[in-house]
Amino acid sequence: MNEQPIAADRGGIRLRGVHKTYGAGEATVHALRDVDVDISPGELVAVLGASGSGKTTMLNVIGGIESVDSGTVVVAGQDISGRPPATLGEFRRVHIGFVFQFFNLIPSLTASENVEAIVELTGRGNRDRIPELLAAVGLSDRANHFPAQLSGGQQQRVAIARALATDPDLVLADEPTGSLDVATGREVLALLQRTTRAGRGVVMVSHNEAAAAIADRIIHMRDGYVVADDRNATPTDAASVRW
Questions:
Q1: What residue spans of the chain are helical by DSSP H?
Q2: For residue 17, which of 1, 4, 35 has the smallest C-alpha distance?
Q3: DSSP state of 189
Q4: Quick one: which of 103, 109, 196 has its CA closest to 158?
Q5: CA distance readout (Å), 170 to 95, 104, 188, 233
Q6: How far apart, in Å, are the Cα atoms of 158 and each of 135, 136, 140, 191?
Q7: What is the pLDDT of residues 40-83, one digit of tens each?
Q8: In sequence order, what are the beta bridge partners of 164?
């Protein structure tokens, strides 16, 4: 049976028969085993699982950070399965925005300058939109503050503004609320919900089922396998999340 191609706009994803291992011999770790996943543009998908379940590896494969041993990875209409690292860098620059648990802000740059740095580095996005992005994450009055002068939640919001600055097709978020308190975690989850309403895909890795309840779909992983892929009929509003 012929499969329809995933739409090329705003972050469609197709994984087919994806395997990824680390190490060799008795030390071999099967991080991903025969993973099949489809994600449509504009979906917010949460990936849940214990440590070592393969969820972060799957995120890295989708983002072109790691290659696969076998299988097919199609993101934003492009098959990235066998691409060399140099072209994967270009792919990430054009299509992907990353949000990590540890914010990776440059300490010597202000919030505004941290966002501007990604625009200059990638050559994508519009520097004039930086005030708009910071306003969207509620940090207009912190634009000229350095990371050390910001709370954890504020730093994560800068990281989200930075991820959106290049107008990516897809936002990949690895434990984006893992180091945040409940109130600031809700703010970050609300931003991710709003991101999908703008038509982008968002894939969020989490160990937190309460946070995952905001998603349109919830994928559960165990020992490298996708063990469940459930549509969430009633996504929780981020403001109501409790954990």
A1: 55-62, 85-95, 111-122, 130-136, 152-164, 182-197, 209-212
A2: 35
A3: H
A4: 103
A5: 6, 19, 16, 22
A6: 10, 10, 11, 11
A7: 888 999 999 999 999 999 999 999 999 899 999 999 888 999 78
A8: none
Nearest alpha carbon to residue 201 among 168, 158, 166, 228: 168
* Residue 73 near residue 66 (C-beta atoms within 8 A): no
- Joined together, the tokens standing for residue 1 give 């049976």
**What span, in angstroms and rounded, lies between the C-alpha atoms of 143 and 135?**
9
Q: Is residue 81 within 8 Å of residue 71, measured between CB atoms?
A: yes
**What pLDDT digit, counting tens, does each position of 93-105 carry?**
888 999 887 788 9
CA atoms of 104 and 95, how far apart (whole Å): 20
pTM for the complete prediction?
0.86
Name the token pair of 17.
């028969």
Per-residue pLDDT at 86? 77
Q: What angle do CA 161, 61, 121 make, to 5 degrees?
A: 40
Copy the structure tokens of residue 166: 């290049």
| SS3 assignment, position 66 | coil
Token pair, residue 86, equals 């140099």
DSSP bridge pairs for 15: 37, 73
**Helix or strand or coil: residue 82?**
coil
